[in-house]
Design goal:
By secondary structure, the protein is of the alpha+beta class. 45% of the residues lie in helices and 27% in strands. It contains three helices and five strands. Strands 3-2-1-4-5 form a five-stranded antiparallel β-sheet. The mean pLDDT is 80.
Length: 190
């Protein structure tokens, strides 16, 4: 199947008997919108998830005001097995630190919320932890940079893809709606 560009589709549509330029433009605009809109929405969703997660982390940073020292008592391991189309097995392992700390005479263990394929922490490492005095299970660990990187990746990636799709949409609209005179079959200019 031969690829036809926007200009060729435009010319074909506008050469139809009594088809006006505005009708051809509307049809092509709808086709472009249908093609680009799902990608734009998904990329904006990723950006929104990143922004919300970053907001939640900053909120934790504000309410977790009691400083305690804790340790990484374990690494929670998540193993996944996948099979490709040929039936070949691939295994991936990701890790999240488990933080142990004491607050007001009680001991707590909290697993980090972000899993990573790299080992950012080793068991037994001492870490600075900030605890929410109203909810001691809610913590903020300043050195837990994996969490920040994931949020930024979602924000930047979603934003970049959104910008690209908006740019494609904008250029397409500009090309479609620039002024052209089209001749109908009767020879009259529209």
């Amino acid at each position: 199947m031969k690829y036809r560009g926007y200009d060729q589709i435009y010319e074909d549509l506008s050469q139809q008997p009594r088809m006006k330029q505005s009708t051809a433009n509307k049809i092509i605009f709808i086709i472009i919108l249908i093609a680009v809109l799902p990608f734009l929405l998904v990329s904006m969703l990723f950006m929104g998830i990143g922004i919300m997660a970053n907001h939640d982390m900053n909120k934790d940073k504000k309410v977790c005001t009691e400083r305690v020292m804790g340790i990484v008592c374990a690494l929670d391991e998540d193993r996944r097995v996948d099979y490709d189309s040929d039936g070949d097995r691939t295994e991936s392992v990701t890790y999240a630190p488990v933080f142990a700390y004491s607050y007001n005479g009680r001991d707590y263990k909290i697993t980090g919320s972000t899993y990573s394929s790299s080992l950012d922490y080793n068991e037994g490492v001492q870490v600075e932890i900030y605890v929410d005095p109203n909810d001691p299970k809610r913590i903020y660990v300043p050195s837990y940079s994996e969490q920040k990187n994931v949020h930024l990746a979602f924000i930047i990636g979603g934003g970049a893809f959104s910008l690209c799709f908006l740019l494609v949409l904008g250029i397409s609209i500009f090309k479609l709606f620039k002024s052209k005179k089209v001749q109908t079959n009767e020879g009259e200019s529209i």
